[in-house]
Write a structure and sequence with these properties.
Layout: H1 5-14, E1 20-23, H2 29-41, E2 44-49, H3 62-78, E3 87-93, E4 96-104, E5 117-120, E6 123-126, H4 129-138, H5 162-165, H6 175-184, E7 188-191, E8 194-197, H7 199-205, E9 218-223, E10 233-239, H8 243-257, E11 260-264, E12 268-272, H9 276-289, E13 299-303, E14 307-313, H10 334-340, H11 347-353, H12 365-377, E15 382-386, E16 389-395
Parallel strand pairs: 1-2, 9-13
Antiparallel strand pairs: 2-4, 3-4, 5-6, 7-8, 9-10, 11-12, 13-14, 14-16, 15-16
């Protein structure tokens, strides 16, 4: 917004409106948080720090400029829920420097210290209940519209990486046909007069979707012990990229630390701690069913000496309960499920998990997780819904080696 300096100067001369706000200096944190959230809850806008109320560029000192930018980023992270994605730019005009803070229209509804606030004209105000309800509904946090088909602000057709989207487009399609097919596949969706990337399109066709959707990655940690203790942390990885790559990277992380014990009877008997088929199903379920509108947390995978824990943001969809998981089926992200069901698993893993596609949509996943894990360890995996997260615990099978007495 206002990308050229000449366009920005012209806008400054016209004064504040629903798209631009002037600040002579950095305001108090709560006030700044309200301004940013108000733009994010409306159509987006620009805050210029170093310009007074009359449109005069007064500038900031270089030290103040750096500190101001740091504070703005901290406010977006710490004072607004969920945190807001912004773009900052340091500008110079007639020897004076100022900070441009661009706030895109958000996918979410944000709460700041002043409440739920939206920009109206050149001012901001707290939204009345009916307006807030409509905004929650339109941005899919009321679950009326499928979130994975929503527009991702500040994206274009070129946000989609060709190497990834070609997987969903028939071979030999012309450039004009590709544009049409991307829209039909809902990888691109209309936003006013423009087409922008959908949430599903971003998650499947970009190498860093978390640049746009906070925490849309898998975090994995392996501990040598039974508790979360940094002193016993052996490995930690963040797996980013398209969702299918995240699944495979997390799968290989578990495979690396999935210990195999053996003993010799008549022949050699081996036992792994975890069924990799069950692990694959659990990872796919976590990725395809997580609530991507909840940007406060990522999918978390913890491995301990006696168990594996997988935590996915979002309560169970619709009326599905923990007790009915084996028998019920409810897809939160239908478009994501459809896209994953078209991608084949690499051959060596496909043989291990007895599955050709990432998602085969037969409703067998939870049953495989429960049955295979129970057969291996003798303990039934535990699903728990804790607040707005779904927790799965899979217990490790005991070693075939005899326990060494101290």
């Amino acid at each position: 917004m206002f990308d050229s300096l000449s366009e920005l100067i012209e806008k400054i001369h016209l004064g504040e409106d629903s798209t631009i706000e002037f600040k002579r200096q950095l305001p108090r944190r709560d006030s700044l948080a309200d301004e940013i959230a108000a733009f994010a809850n409306a159509r987006g806008g620009v805050i210029l720090i170093g310009v007074d109320d009359h449109g005069e560029i007064v500038g900031l000192g270089q030290h103040n400029l750096d500190q101001t930018e740091k504070t703005v980023v901290e406010v977006c992270r710490d004072s607004i829920e969920p945190q807001v994605s912004i773009f900052t730019e340091k500008l110079q005009f007639d020897g004076k420097v100022l900070l441009k803070v661009e706030v895109p229209r958000s996918l979410f509804v944000h709460k700041s210290p002043g409440g739920y606030i939206a920009r109206q004209g050149s001012s901001k105000r707290e939204m009345p209940t009916d307006q807030l309800a409509r905004l929650l509904q339109s941005r899919s946090q009321a679950r009326i519209i499928s979130f994975d088909e929503q527009v991702v602000p500040n994206t274009t057709r070129h946000t989609l990486h060709e190497h990834f989207y070609r997987r969903f487009i028939r071979e030999g399609a012309s450039e004009d046909e590709i544009e049409d097919l991307l829209q039909k596949r809902r990888l691109l969706v209309r936003d006013g007069s423009l087409y922008r990337v959908s949430v599903a399109g971003l998650l499947m066709c970009h190498d860093r979707p978390d640049d746009y959707l906070y925490n849309s990655f898998i975090q994995a940690v392996f501990y040598r012990g039974k508790t979360k203790d940094a002193n016993y942390q052996i490995d930690a990885k963040d797996f980013r990229g398209p969702l299918d790559r995240q699944i495979m990277d997390a799968y290989k992380f578990v495979e690396r630390y999935n210990q195999v014990s053996a003993r010799k009877d008549v022949g050699r008997t081996e036992r792994s701690q975890y069924s990799m088929r069950a692990v694959f199903e659990a990872l796919v379920n976590a990725v395809v069913h997580r609530d991507y509108s909840k940007a406060v947390s990522k999918i978390r995978l913890f491995m301990f000496s006696d168990r594996l824990e997988l935590i996915s943001p979002g309560a169970l969809a619709n009326t599905l309960s923990v007790e009915r998981l084996r028998y019920g089926q409810a897809t939160r992200n239908e478009l994501l499920a459809r896209l994953l069901s078209e991608l084949t698993v690499e051959d060596n893993v496909s043989r291990q998990v007895a599955r050709r596609y990432f998602l085969e949509r037969r409703g067998e996943g939870v049953g495989i997780i429960l049955d295979e894990s129970t057969a291996l360890s003798g303990k039934v995996p535990v699903y728990e819904q804790i607040d707005e997260t779904l927790h799965l615990t899979i217990f490790a099978a005991k070693s075939l080696q005899p326990v060494q007495e101290p």
